[in-house]
Design a protein that fits this description.
Strand content: 25-35%
CATH architecture: 2-Layer Sandwich
Largest sheet: 8 strands, antiparallel, barrel
Radius of gyration: 18 Å
Number of domains: 1
Structural class: alpha+beta
CATH class: Alpha Beta
Distance between the termini: 34 Å
Shape: globular
Length: 254
């Protein structure tokens, strides 16, 4: 497999929310719910572009400084300004995730990725993975950072999830993750599916956006009610994964 990635000197960019998986279930009234969903949700956008996913954990006492560093972005990035930075609220131990759009390809250079002086004292640990995903226009629209402006999505909540399939279950897991959410249960307004190219020990990454904490809480409540009946996406997901985690976040850039 030819995977071309670039290691950048970027200022990049470090309780399980089962509602995400449950929301992707398709109850008996699936036809009505799917028809109510936006037409763009029925067919996932082609994964034509490369993104760099950077999880970072701040050094003690440096969380605010690290946030400022990541928000500043890198003017030498291949796609300056094409980055989403999210801050941990609940879930995994990382503090920030930055997702940098690289264009349709990236390269690795022998010079490596030396950390600049400004970065050395800010980060405790980080993890990087290159993935493929939709075009930047599709990504930005789903994440509420498109041409319409970010002020309208200032209160958005984002759930970041990573998945590793069981052997032989990759296609089934991808199909499951690609299904549009059931609109009677889930109030998400943007969903992105990305696939590992090089890096971390997971295969898929999803990001689901909710307009508000209230919409997120309502979706979680609906999901719990569904799983309490012994049905829903949580049970379906468990048939295909060996590992997954979810983290609730909010946006700090752009």
């Amino acid at each position: 497999m030819k995977t071309i990635v670039r290691i950048l000197s970027l200022p990049l960019i470090g309780l399980v929310c089962v509602g995400l998986a449950q929301a992707q279930s398709t109850p008996a009234s699936a036809k009505e719910e799917k028809s109510a969903a936006p037409s763009s949700a029925a067919t996932p956008a082609p994964r034509t572009d490369v993104y760099h996913v950077h999880f970072n954990h701040a050094a003690p006492g440096k969380a605010a400084a690290l946030a400022d560093f990541l928000k500043a972005g890198n003017p030498n990035a291949p796609m300056p300004g094409h980055v989403l930075v999210l801050r941990h609220q609940d879930g995994e131990p990382w503090d920030y995730v930055a997702i940098q759009h690289m264009g349709t390809k990236a390269t690795v250079e022998a010079a490596g990725n030396p950390r600049g002086a400004a970065m050395k004292d800010l980060s405790d640990w980080h993890d990087d993975t290159f993935v493929n995903g939709p075009s930047w226009a599709e990504f930005a629209k789903a994440m509420g950072i498109g041409d319409e402006g970010t002020s309208k999505s200032a209160e958005s909540v984002y759930v970041v999830s990573v998945y590793r399939p069981l052997p032989g279950h990759q296609d089934a897991l991808e199909k499951f993750l690609s299904e549009p959410p059931a609109r009677s249960n889930d109030l998400s307004v943007g969903n992105v599916l990305m696939q590992h190219l090089e890096g971390g020990a997971w295969r898929y990454l999803t990001i689901s956006r909710y307009k508000s904490w209230q919409d997120f809480a309502t979706s979680e409540s609906n999901s719990v009610a569904q799983s309490s009946k012994g049905e829903g996406g949580w049970f379906q997901l468990r048939e295909h994964i060996s590992f997954h985690n979810d983290t609730v976040t909010y946006r700090i850039a752009p």
